[in-house]
Amino acid sequence: MTEVDYYELLECDRGADAGTIKSAYRKLAMKYHPDKNGGCKDHEAKFKAVSEAYECLKDPQKRAAYDRFGHAAFKNGGGHGAQDFGGFSDIFESVFGEFMGGRAGGRAAARRGADLRYDLEITLEEAFHGKQTEVTIEVSAACEPCAGTGAKPGTAARQCPTCGGHGKVRAQQGFFVVERTCPSCHGAGQVIADPCTACRGEGRVDKPKTLSVNIPAGVDEGTRIRLSGEGECGARGAPPGDLYIFLHVARHRIFEREGTTLLARCPVSFTTAALGGTITIPGLDGEPNEIRIPAGIQSGKQIRQRGGGMPVLQGRGRGDMVVQIDVETPTRLSARQKELLQQFRETETGEECPQSKGFFAKLKDVIG
């Protein structure tokens, strides 16, 4: 299941402060509020998504849990590979419990597998259309001979004699009792006397894994896709971590991108700029975009083509295409062309180029 990162939804960096997150939420909430969009279902869904993201990230404790566990922090036994938390108190303990002594008398939870990162480069066309692709990673998986227990087949782990299966030991220091993770079983509450030879008691081995990744249309540079439960296998049957796919969009030969807007620099001849005309620029969807050049256009002028840009991620509609006109001065002229241009220059009055006329008039006033 593809889940969009909360920071991506709010269009914020992961290190953004509370004020920045609040400001981003207000802007998006106003943009997608159903009352302002005629009850549009897609805008309503987007509004709910950004509201959910803000509810999480505005709370420092929830944000800390989300930064560590992702969406799995708020799932209670649901979804493939999601870590099973009994409630937010369990999340808080998982994040801060090591500093606060943990739950008294309780066995330390089995160590969850590490989250993994995979960087995937895609083309701008693939970001436009979306795609289904496969990635192959080297990741730890449950050992088959011991079924992930770490114990030699036919044997089993036994209760740790040091901590009595609690996973923690206590020591008296003056008036205080200090509770620490058991040094013998490292908090598992069990020890393996006869470890599996295939995994050396780890319960997991490294092996390649091929995964299918769904890249939705409209993704941008840095978009993060989470594959729940596809990270490193947890030790001795512990829950697995998650795999995060970070997308990188390759530089395009024609277009640059700003959000859902596509920008293109288009050189046109000075005659087209002077007389006007029409140019055709194919979009990323292959459809032609006819751009009308008004007569007398100046270099650097931008023309906007509505709906010619990138799709809106998890929404409907598309952004715009913006074409910047660069008037090109000819460098290779025939004798006839030079003759015609000379004739044109002889007919100039200065009114043809008001900007030039105005500049030199001001310059004359300055010089005196």
UniProtKB/TrEMBL annotation:
Domain J, residue spans: 5-70
Cellular location(s): Cytoplasm
Domain CR-type: 130-208
Binding site for Zn(2+) 1: 143, 146, 196, 199
Main subcellular location: cytoplasm
Zn finger residue spans: CR-type: 130-208
Cofactor note as given: Binds 2 Zn(2+) ions per monomer.
SUPFAM superfamilies cross-referenced by the UniProt entry: Chaperone J-domain, DnaJ/Hsp40 cysteine-rich domain, HSP40/DnaJ peptide-binding domain
Functional note: Participates actively in the response to hyperosmotic and heat shock by preventing the aggregation of stress-denatured proteins and by disaggregating proteins, also in an autonomous, DnaK-independent fashion. Unfolded proteins bind initially to DnaJ; upon interaction with the DnaJ-bound protein, DnaK hydrolyzes its bound ATP, resulting in the formation of a stable complex. GrpE releases ADP from DnaK; ATP binding to DnaK triggers the release of the substrate protein, thus completing the reaction cycle.
Quaternary data: Homodimer.
UniProt domain comment: The J domain is necessary and sufficient to stimulate DnaK ATPase activity. Zinc center 1 plays an important role in the autonomous, DnaK-independent chaperone activity of DnaJ. Zinc center 2 is essential for interaction with DnaK and for DnaJ activity.
The protein's name in its UniProt record: Chaperone protein DnaJ
Organism listed in the record: Sphingomonas gilva
Lineage, top ranks: Bacteria, Pseudomonadati, Pseudomonadota, Alphaproteobacteria, Sphingomonadales
